[in-house]
Amino acid sequence: MDSMLVPPWLERLLQTPFFNVCRIHGDAARSECNMFCLDCNNNNNNNNGDAFCFYCRSSRHKDHQVIQIRRSSYHDVVRVVEIQKVLDISGVQTYVINSARVLFLNERPQPKSGKGVPHICEICGRSLLDPFRFCSLGCKLVGIKRNGDASFVLDDKINEALAMEGISSRRSSMSSRNHHQEEEELGEGSPQNIYTPPPPSNTRRRKGIPHRAPFGS
Description:
A hairpin with a 2-residue loop joins strand 3 and strand 4 (about 75-80). This protein has helices at about 10-15, 40, 55-60, 80-85, 135-145, 155-190, and strands spanning about 35, 65-70, 70, 75-80, 95, 100-105. About 30% of the residues lie in helices and about 10% in strands.
């Protein structure tokens, strides 16, 4: 396969079994193997490319590029904020699960989509929520092998755009919070809501019936 379209570690990621108990740290609380090292799996001859646990990361992959795999309905997913830093995920359907945007690693079996479904995966025919081409990273990989009209490799311009998008998103979020805070402050104690007496008039008072000053007590 053309390494210009697919990084060498991707197929191993899609074939790796996750969430087995670590052989070394099986008695620990966080012993499930849900980590994957991109650096170790760039070399096909590396024997340190299996899934590993939280404690193995600290001891064997401390300075490596690592992604964490998660589970949704017994299927492996990865957070978009992690995977988009290393892969071009364009064309792959994403989902929001537990307030996090994720995508699935591999195809999930389902009955064939009925008629009238507006969006389906080009490879497995799974119904999609939005107009994407693929339901998972695995289906996009198959599409690249068949047609070569997509890519997983990020170029420098895309990396720069992702960085700028992150900065812009953070600025927009901060601006929105500040604007909301300003609106709340205006609603509670703005000059518009506080009565201000009119300035004294310089015009002379018209003569009328004199008023006697009140007697002192």
